[in-house]
Amino acid sequence: MIDLRDVRDVNFGGTADTLALLLTDAAAFLTLPSLYGTGLHGLLLAGVAALGGGLWFGWRVGSKLRLTHGGEFDIHSHDAPPAEAGGMHVGFIAHTMQELIVPPSSWLRHAMIVGQSGVGKTVVGSWLMFQQIAGGGGLLWIDGKLDPSNIELLHRMCVWAGRPNDLLIVNPGTPGTSNTYNPLLDGDPDEIASRLGALLPEASNNAAADFYRSSAINAIGALVQATRAAGYAINFADLRILLTRPGALEWLLSDMKKKKVDVADTEQFALFLDQLRQRDRRTGAEVLDADGIRKMFGGLGARLAQFGGGQFGEVMNAYTPEVRIKDVVRAGKILYFALPTMGKGEAAIALARMAVSDFRSAIAAIQALPEGERPEKPFLGFFDEAGSYVTQAWSRMFEQARSARLVMVPAFQTKANLETLGPELRAMVAGNTVTKIIFSPGEPDTADWCADMIGKELREQHTRSESSSASSKGVTVLDRGRGVANAQNAGSSASHSVSLREDYKVSAADLMKLDRGECVVTLEGHQVFHVKVPLVSFESDFIEQTGPFHVRHPATTVPDGLEPLRITQRPGAMR
Ligand SMILES: Nc1ncnc2c1ncn2[C@@H]1O[C@H](COP(=O)(O)OP(=O)(O)O)[C@@H](O)[C@H]1O
Ligand SMILES: [Mg+2]
């Protein structure tokens, strides 16, 4: 839509305007046959004069026209920052239709996307991801709200960019179209143990539950350490048996002794098992107590059953998984986690948490690499509907990611999403994301928070004492500097006072007016833009040529020379 407001503020009547008006009038006269005849000369002159006058007025009016989206929302955006190579396009600035390109230095300091359901968070995420793929960068997309069309969209993007072979998908909802993934292989035993903690409820507000949780995590750490020391790769089925069967634990200990594994590791594991031993009343021998084991691992065995069997098991019970997040990051591949949150909510969320934790270990591994070996093109992590799987681990991740040249972009719906684990986490996420992409918030609490993040500025407050409703909201000091005029009513009165008042750059109420696909973007904390986001889609011809997604199975190897544990096949382990 065309906005005429600024045209109304133009004062016509300077020398140039008068001259142009004279020219157009002269043109009209020149065409009058009674005055100058119908000669070609007269008509040509008239044409030139009309053109001159018309062009002038056209320019005068045209230069003040603005393109608007036609919605109720209206702020004056800053000028777009200069385009830089490696910058990320977010969308078009309303009114000017300039492209908003986040400079690489800001982009590397992360971005967050907030807005209620259905406003365009995934659409803007897709646009960012498309640029990442087209630019040859690596991508991790964790999708908290499974939409089967997302896989097809991603597939088309990869084909479009000539990278179909770089696409990996973890999709436990339909194992037939999934690559395999095992989050128990990468990272040190402590990291893996805390990763498994994702299966236990977070208990940050309850000291007793917290103690119980951390002792379970420590116990798993001891177990993973022992299997590693003995040279085994484990999967969820193995772990489940180790956490429930005394025979399996005894077998592991004797195997460590037999193999003459590092004495310290063996001793430590023996000591760990000793805590669980009890004297058998009949035989008098010290045996592992099955009840004690169950207690120590905090019911984790039952939760692991979900991952060790069924559809999840098909995807996750691999000793040589096709997906290893640290390799995905190193090699700049494209990885999509499709989470079946509807049917298998709890397991899906636990998987998302484990994937994030695995990603975190990958970040640490990259950080440890010399500068030259880190990914040249920044990696992108897009965490869609992050509210359902955020954990405390997030708080440190942003800082670590930046130095490893990884960009994190979480998208969530509400402020409360980030506060389920306490206000610190929310502050951490908000404080560590330099670019904020804010869509229409669904509820007042989130709207207030967003308005606060966008910030305040000094505004001129105009008051006229004479007229009945004498107050009008002026434009900002900043806008005035950019030449935007105040909307003044005709017939101004004798007493007109101007005061400066601090006000929200964009109020909570205004944010609620944002339309679908429309957002407020803040850069570096002070630049504010009103942005329209493009929707990435492909033409039907291209879609037909591309065909539907087929999973590709890359070659795999057993990680780090480890031997698959296959505990069920070990003698005596199932006792
Ligand atoms: N920028 C846009 N241009 C056109 N349509 C859009 C745009 N953003 C969102 N939409 C429409 O709204 C729907 C929901 O958007 P989506 O990004 O999935 O919302 P959510 O915020 O829940 O992730 C999309 O399927 C699309 O039809
Ligand atoms: Mg979405």
Overview of the molecule:
This protein is an alpha/beta fold and 575 residues long. Among the domains are: 2-67; 100-181 and 335-452, Rossmann fold (3-Layer(aba) Sandwich), CATH 3.40.50; 189-301, no CATH class. The chain is 43% helix and 17% strand. The protein is built from 24 helices and 20 strands. An eleven-stranded mixed beta sheet has the order 4-3-19-18-14-5-13-12-6-11-7, with helices on both faces. Strand 18 and strand 19 form a beta hairpin. Helix 8 (189-196) packs antiparallel against helix 17. The longest helix has 23 residues, at 40-62. The protein is elongated and about 130 Å long. The mean pLDDT is 84. It binds adenosine-5'-diphosphate and magnesium ion (MG). Magnesium ion (MG) is lined by residues 121-122, 145, 384.
Summarize the structure.
The chain has 575 residues and is α/β, with parallel strands linked by helices. The chain is built from 24 helices and 20 strands.
Task: Please render the helix and strand layout as text.
Blueprint: E1 2-3, H1 5-8, H2 15-30, H3 33-36, H4 40-62, E2 66-67, E3 88-93, E4 99-102, H5 104-107, E5 111-114, H6 121-134, E6 139-143, H7 148-160, E7 167-170, H8 189-196, H9 207-229, E8 232-233, H10 236-242, H11 246-259, H12 263-274, E9 277-279, E10 286-288, H13 290-296, H14 300-308, H15 310-316, H16 325-331, E11 334-338, H17 345-367, E12 379-384, H18 394-403, E13 406-412, H19 415-419, H20 423-431, E14 435-438, H21 444-454, E15 456-464, E16 471-476, H22 477-481, E17 496-504, H23 508-512, E18 518-523, E19 527-532, H24 540-546, E20 563-564
Parallel strand pairs: 5-13, 5-14, 6-11, 6-12, 7-11, 8-20, 12-13
Antiparallel strand pairs: 1-2, 3-4, 3-19, 9-10, 14-18, 15-16, 15-17, 18-19
Helix pairs in contact: 2-4, 6-7, 8-9, 8-17, 9-12, 10-14, 11-12, 16-17, 17-18, 18-20
